Amino acid sequence: MKRAGREQGGQRACAWLLIALTFVGPIRHGLAAPAAKPKPAAAPPAPRPPDPAKEAARALVAIADADPLALARVVNRFSDDVVLSLLAQAQPVEVRIAAARACPWLRVPERALARLTELAAGRDPDLAPAAAHAVLQIAQRVDAATLARHEQAPAAFAFVLKSLRALSEDARVVAHIRLWASAAAQLLAAAGVPEPEPTP
Asked: What is the pTM of this model?
């Protein structure tokens, strides 16, 4: 009898132990320290602001047939300085051609005359005439009142006048460029641009 009682007691103890293990496991699991939350992903870097010179170059080069209305619309979107920067030697020739064609529609187009005259005297068969024609277009719109309104001193263009006259007399230059240079020189002189002072 005692042995049977002990066996029954042992069986009950084992049963209680199994019950305890069944419940304690999940309880311990539930009380465990919460898992670390994943760190939020780093925010992507802010996009770089667009380069206005590159945007202007793309827009001007995309204009077909030098459409004056399209050129004027693009120039209106950017500053004169941006368009003038596209005439730099470092720019591809197609960009300089497009910028030269756009210069007559600058807010103060006379600012482009010196650089355009240099390009007109170059030997590129596409860039030189584009620059020379732009010089003529600008000169056709220049008078004393325009220079005063734009706060441009006539004497500042004396060297341009001298260069245009030299270009018009250069036998190595194609005829239409010489004609445009001669006409532009006459127009600038009529607008009050003085002859450059002779060098000592």
From this structure: 0.75
